[in-house]
């Protein structure tokens, strides 16, 4: 399959707090984080707090360039689904993005590609931009099955989506072996998989779509490796876990261009 590449898309950097931070901790974080940001951002920035902090976070970032995202959604708009949150509810509280299919949802809660596809469809139907996650385990990488696994996940999750919607999706490549372990895919490893994803999109949807979709890297992203990862042609941002829990750390990641210019 011929390779495709393009000039950089506008980066997107998202903070996935997972099951961390109370509302009071959310307030402290956002106030500190906003003070650390430059007047003009070089990237789209998204903060994804727990459901209990979404309304507060929205009030704190209102009028700024920071957008609000959720960590998960239900595939239904309403109904008898105790403990679940619908995409319509998330939109009502101010969300513009939703993380879908994170490896922890797949591994711990049994989410399948078929369910993830339903969630992506529900997100689009409710004007949410999905951040859809894909990635392989250490065992799959060591068996040289990385690209096979990622292709299966992408095709399974995007099957039947119109091209116009696919162009708006955000994909996040998160090697499971690098999440919360301190291990990070090397820039060469990240670029290899990101380019493969772009070629899968080209094969399925054509060049215009493949060149439009932003593909984030996730997996122990830190201030010290963000600039190096972002130097890869097909890495369009980061889905940041542990390093996004500290306001200073996440601000440094968002400001990776300044850090690089300073020669740090």
Domain module count = 1
CATH architectural name:
Alpha-Beta Barrel
Which structural class is indicated by helix and strand composition? alpha/beta
Kindly report the average pLDDT value: 93
Protein architecture, described:
44% of the residues lie in helices and 14% in strands. The chain is α/β, with parallel strands linked by helices and 264 residues long. It has one domain (12-261): TIM Barrel (Alpha-Beta Barrel). An eight-stranded parallel β-sheet has the order 7-6-5-4-3-2-1-8. Helix 11 (223-230) packs parallel to helix 12 (247-254).
Short structural summary:
This protein is α/β, with parallel strands linked by helices and 264 residues long.
Topology:
Elements (H helix, E strand, L loop, with lengths): L11 E5 L6 H14 L7 E5 L5 H8 L4 E5 L16 H6 L4 E4 L2 H7 L3 H13 L3 E6 L3 H5 L3 H13 L4 H4 L3 E4 L13 H19 L1 H6 L1 E4 L5 H8 L6 E4 L6 H8 L1 H6 L3
Parallel strand pairs: 1-2, 1-8, 2-3, 3-4, 4-5, 5-6, 6-7
Relevant terms:
264 residues, alpha/beta, TIM Barrel, eight-stranded parallel sheet, 8 strands, 44% helix, globular, disordered N terminus
């Amino acid at each position: 399959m011929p390779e495709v590449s393009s000039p950089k898309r506008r980066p997107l950097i998202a903070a996935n707090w997972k099951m961390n931070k109370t509302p009071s901790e959310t307030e402290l974080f956002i106030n500190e984080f906003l003070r650390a940001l430059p007047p003009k951002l070089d990237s789209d920035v998204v903060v994804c707090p727990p459901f209990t902090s979404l309304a507060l976070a929205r009030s704190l970032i209102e009028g700024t360039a920071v957008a609000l995202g959720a960590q998960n959604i239900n595939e239904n708009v309403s109904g008898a689904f105790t403990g679940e949150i619908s995409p319509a509810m998330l939109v009502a509280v101010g969300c513009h993005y939703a993380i879908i299919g994170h490896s922890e949802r797949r591994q711990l809660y049994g989410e399948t590609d078929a369910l993830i596809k339903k969630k992506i469809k529900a997100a689009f139907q409710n004007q949410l931009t999905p951040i859809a996650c894909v990635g392989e385990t250490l065992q799959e990488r060591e068996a040289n099955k990385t690209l096979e696994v990622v292709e299966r996940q992408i095709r399974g999750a995007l099957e039947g989506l119109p091209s116009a919607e696919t162009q708006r999706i955000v994909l996040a490549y998160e090697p499971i072996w690098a999440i919360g372990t301190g291990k990070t895919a090397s820039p060469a490893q990240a670029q290899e998989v990101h380019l493969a994803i772009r070629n899968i999109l080209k094969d399925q949807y054509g060049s215009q779509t493949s060149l439009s979709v932003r593909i984030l890297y996730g997996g122990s992203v830190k201030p010290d490796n963000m600039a190096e990862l972002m130097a890869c042609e097909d890495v369009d941002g980061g889905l940041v876990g542990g390093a996004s829990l500290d306001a200073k750390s996440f601000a440094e990641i968002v400001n990776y261009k300044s850090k690089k210019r300073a020669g740090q």
